[in-house]
Specification:
The structure holds two protein chains of two kinds.
Chain A: E1 4-11, H1 13-16, H2 19-28, E2 31-34, H3 40-50, H4 57-70, E3 78-84, H5 88-104, E4 109-114, H6 120-135, H7 137-140, E5 148-154, E6 158-165, E7 168-176, H8 180-195, E8 204-208, H9 212-219, E9 223-224, H10 227-238, E10 245-251, E11 256-262, E12 265-272, H11 280-290, H12 294-302, H13 316-328, H14 333-351, E13 362-365, H15 372-382, E14 386-387, H16 395-404
Parallel strand pairs in A: 1-2, 1-3, 3-4, 4-12, 5-8, 8-9, 10-13, 13-14
Antiparallel strand pairs in A: 5-6, 6-7, 10-11, 11-12
Helix pairs in contact in A: 2-6, 3-4, 4-5, 10-16, 11-13, 11-14, 12-14, 12-15, 14-15
Chain B: E1 3-7, H1 12-20, E2 24-26, H2 28-37, H3 51-55, H4 66-81, E3 84-89, H5 101-114, E4 118-122, H6 127-143
Parallel strand pairs in B: 1-2, 1-3, 3-4
Helix pairs in contact in B: 4-5
The chains are: A alpha/beta, B alpha/beta.
Chain lengths: 411, 149
């Protein structure tokens, strides 16, 4: 497959001045956006069949287009659903269409609520994931790592590197991201040293994360791929859950990902986008304010009760204010730590997990999955046990190393 | 000759009727043509840029979705100039279609608030109603300043 065709179902982007941004994001990953053409009679019939009696004609059109895609009357490789942020009617349609397409077809789908400030950069990773799923199904089907490969995850907070050999992790490196290339180089050296092998022995390299392009070019990577598909792959590999459905939650330093996975391949996903109050960064700040290392925050939270401290802000500034107020009012560090974990989990739950279908096992990955208090809070909210696989903090690097092994024999 | 705001503003039939009976239609097509012909940032398909929803703040507050504000940046200036309005309710999509129900509700409210002469019509369901539909529009347009009555 060369150029990926993404069907757009939307209301409002052309009037918000962001249609060009959507087109540009698709163009950047060698894909094209198109609007499924329908007959007027089909629009009336499809809308009526679907049964959601919305008032906005553009949403009716989106519903009719979704029906045409699912019924195979229009061909596409992927679907992008976009409606205005803060529109309740559109939010209902967006969710129902995403669910409908996910259940009734094999088309990868992503939904997004935009404002006039949405840029192509914001949409790029989502578009890239859509095209990866459409283009690289064979590669994503890989379940076993072969040979000696390396994966590097250049994240917003930390850079991780993993060396794998014959389906096993033999070396890891983990450092805070400062200079993108320098951090990657150091993490790679650490991983190679732990594995006890030289760089020449590496047969294939994969990169992911925010710095994937820069690091990928620097390391001459065979695979440069966004973190949505890579993390899904890494998560099901490490959790030994490669077949059937699963849900992957990755609360990162800058954004969060919730991915509904089937046989290791993302079906629907959301990527926020919410605010720093619902990110790993807030937990870092909490640890700093409490005077403990981030690695100690989880055990501390496990000893506390989140209900004792009111904290639920989307904003990192107001969240910190609640934290300071609670400490000033005499709350214990344990209760404050628990409340911070609950606050982050609750916002991810409310803002993002409503947009994917939660299916067990629920796998939490990324550095924040090591904070037990956060994992417990998420499990309480979802009313389900959460799986945190070994090496969960290296998820992107493991997924990259696993997928990169497909390049040893040029799959 | 009066400036007549039409709803749906995308209706070419309604726009043509207003012009045929001697008045100036205020329609989306005119407004979009003006935007497309004005040199500026390239932002297809309508050449609406992220600046336009900000202009829409004049008619709708910041918490209103950007699509509504962007649409209001198109239709709001037309409404400002309107001296009369023709509203066709429940129009068939082939007659003219306005994509966003919330924008439509706001437009309806602003038209009525303006206190200009308004002709409210239901979209005709058969030929007989169609003839009366056109006749009602003609009577209304003839009664406006500069009309033929």
């Amino acid at each position: 497959m060369t150029r990926v065709r993404i069907a757009q179902l939307s209301c409002g982007p052309e009037y918000s001045g962001v249609q060009k941004e959507i087109n540009d994001a698709a163009e950047a990953v060698d894909a094209e956006i198109f609007f499924p053409d329908l007959k007027l009679a089909d629009i009336r019939r499809s809308f009526s069949d679907f049964g959601l009696d919305v008032r906005s004609p553009d949403l009716k059109l989106a519903i009719a287009r979704a029906k045409a895609l699912v019924e195979g009357r229009v061909e596409a490789d992927a679907v992008f659903i976009a409606t205005c942020f803060r529109c309740a009617e559109a939010a209902i349609v967006r969710n129902e269409l995403r669910r409908f397409i996910h259940e009734k077809s094999r088309l990868p789908v992503v939904s997004y609520s935009f404002t006039e400030r949405t840029t192509s950069g914001t949409l790029l990773t989502r578009m890239e994931a859509l095209t990866t799923i459409a283009r690289r199904r064979a590669l994503l089907a890989r379940e076993v790592q072969e040979g000696i490969t390396m994966g590097v995850d250049s994240g917003s907070s930390t850079t991780k590197a993993v060396v794998m050999k014959n389906n096993r992790i033999i070396g890891t490196g983990w450092l805070p991201t400062t200079g993108v290339i320098e951090s990657a180089e150091n993490a790679v050296s650490e991983a190679l040293s732990a594995a006890g092998i030289s760089r020449d022995e590496i047969q294939a390299i994969g990169t992911t994360g925010y710095g994937r392009f820069l690091v990928g070019e620097h390391l001459k990577a065979d695979l440069i791929q966004e973190e949505l598909t890579v993390n899904s792959k890494g998560a099901v590999f490490l959790a030994d859950s490669q077949h059937g459905p699963s849900t992957v939650i990755d609360i990162g330093g800058m954004d969060n990902k919730a991915i509904s996975v089937q046989d290791g391949i993302p079906g629907t996903f959301t990527m926020g986008g919410i605010c720093a109050g619902a990110s790993g960064r807030f937990l870092e700040m909490t640890a700093k304010r409490l005077g403990v290392d981030i690695t100690e925050l989880g055990p501390l939270a496990m000893k506390g009760l989140s209900q004792k401290v009111p904290m639920n802000s989307y904003c990192i500034v107001f969240g910190t204010q609640s934290l300071v107020n609670a400490l000033a009012a005499g709350s214990t560090p344990e209760d404050v730590a628990a409340a911070a974990c609950h606050s982050v989990a609750e916002q991810v739950f409310e803002q993002q997990l409503q947009e994917v279908d939660i299916k067990e096992p629920v796998i939490m990955v990324g550095g924040t999955s090591l904070i037990q208090g956060l994992v417990r809070a998420m499990g309480d909210l979802l009313q389900t046990p959460i799986t945190v696989p070994p090496h969960s903090q290296y998820i992107g690097a493991v997924g990259s190393a696993l997928l990169a092994s497909g390049f040893i024999r040029r799959e | 000759m009066a400036k007549v705001f039409i709803f749906p503003t995308t209706s070419l039939i309604l726009s043509d009727l207003v012009a045929r009976f001697g008045h100036t239609p205020l329609s989306a097509a005119m407004q979009i043509r003006e935007i497309i012909q004005t040199p500026g940032l390239e932002s297809p398909p309508l050449q609406i840029t992220p600046e336009d929803p900000k202009k829409g703040l004049r008619w709708a507050a910041v918490e209103v979705p950007s699509g509504v504000r962007g649409r209001m940046s198109l239709y709001g200036p037309l409404l400002d100039r309107a001296e009369a309005a023709i509203i066709v309710n429940n129009a068939d999509y082939s007659f003219g279609c306005m994509g966003c129900a919330r924008t439509n509700e706001l437009l309806m409210f602003l038209i009525r608030k303006k206190g200009i002469p308004v002709l409210d019509l239901e979209y005709p369901a058969n030929e007989e109603e169609g003839v009366e539909f056109v006749a009602a529009i003609k009577r209304f347009l003839d009664s406006l300043p500069g009309g033929r009555a």
